[in-house]
Amino acid sequence: MAANTSSIAPAPPLKDELDIIIPTIRNLDFLEMWRPFFQPYHLIIVQDGDPTKTIKVPPGFDYELYNRNDINKLLGPRASCISFKDSACRCFGYMVSKKKYIFTIDDDCFVANDPSGKAINALEQHIKNLLCPSTPYFFNTLYDPYREGADYVRGYPFSLREGAPTAISHGLWLNIPDYDAPTQLVKPLERNTRYVDTVLTIPKGTLFPMCGMNLAFDRDLIGPAMYFGLMGDGQPIGRYDDMWAGWCCKVICDHMGLGIKTGLPYIYHSKASNPFVNLRKEYKGIFWQEDIIPFFQNVVLPKECTTVQKCYIELSKQVKEKLSKVDPYFDKLADAMVTWIEAWDELNPAGASKANGKA
After folding, report:
1. Which end of the chain offers a freer environment for a tag, N or C, measured as fewer CB atoms within 10 Å?
2. Name one GO molecular function term (predicted).
3. How many CB atoms lie within 10 A of CB 350?
4. Partners of 170 in beta bridges
5. Spatial separation of the C-alpha atoms in residues 282 and 259, rounded to whole Å
């Protein structure tokens, strides 16, 4: 007699193909709220700051935890490319993962509710985004044509309806907005309560400010470009780590024929960081971004750049050539970009040939 399988819950999507990366300086009590969604998956926790501090993880989670001593031991001299005392250290988790997909979240991000009151499974929505094509070459006015109840609108070229592989899914946040320090200072009480039920592809040739606290990506397609730069201790800038990675990834995705989606899913961002501390971290970046943005808007990658690694090395050369005039920091950052790729390829020798997209 056949077993009744109607009551068996479906397997979590991509259970064996996805790692969750969390940078932290504190005990991970926030995972209790995420347990229904995260427990089936493997966690990689990157402990920032003091490596002698014990980080407690709630029981029942499958995880590995790396502190600064582990990073130094694993990478040796190349550990210099991993930021210290900054959440940019999370990119070390991208490097040591061996899964095809990555989801990364901050430890002050909780489960949000949709307008009906239902808890949002952010991870499930990110997976949906990544598994459906993007439309970077022609804007669809119904946004993501692959969502249920949508399609390509009249006038959308049939030759472009196949879309492009999705490399990055960029999620949003309710409650505390992701503002820079000057905006925080003038709007200290502002909260984002607007839930917009939309996913859209960022068009080719358009940059965006990527936020790393609710982010997923296809590691095989874009992983080597997901370097969060040199930030934090010993560096003249902070809070530009995810944006730097986003700008680099966007120009590489445009070159490689890959797409980036933004919109759903939402998480609940629970804690506002100190705007005065943020201003101290950001103030040079606020000036520098007026040169950085035009730099990325005008980057041209040669056709010989057929892998993400080759694109990233070429980008590092152009950073050294063009942005080191803005500040010597960019000379050091360009060198760190090369070190990052060397470390990535050392830990991921097979990945060196996998990180290809459509040229």
Report:
1. N
2. UDP-arabinopyranose mutase activity
3. 8
4. 215, 262
5. 29
259 sits in which H/E element: strand 259-269
Question: Which pLDDT score, from 0 to 100, does residue 5 have?
Answer: 46
Asked if 142 contacts 161 with a C-beta cutoff of 8 angstroms, the reply is no
How many residues belong to the chain?
359
Radius of gyration of the chain (CA): 20
Q: What domains lie within the chain, and their CATH numbers?
A: 18-347 (3.90.550)
In the block, which residue shows the tokens 């050539």?
321
Parts of the chain with a pLDDT under 70: 1-7, 9, 350-359
Q: What is the DSSP string of 33-90?
A: HHHHHHTTSEEEEEE-S-TTSPPP--TT-EEEEE-HHHHHHHHGGGGGGS-BSSGGGG
CA angle 196, 259, 88 (to 5 degrees): 80
pLDDT at 348: 97
Which of 22, 24, 61, 66 minimizes the C-alpha distance to 41? 61
Which tokens go with 256? 């490689």
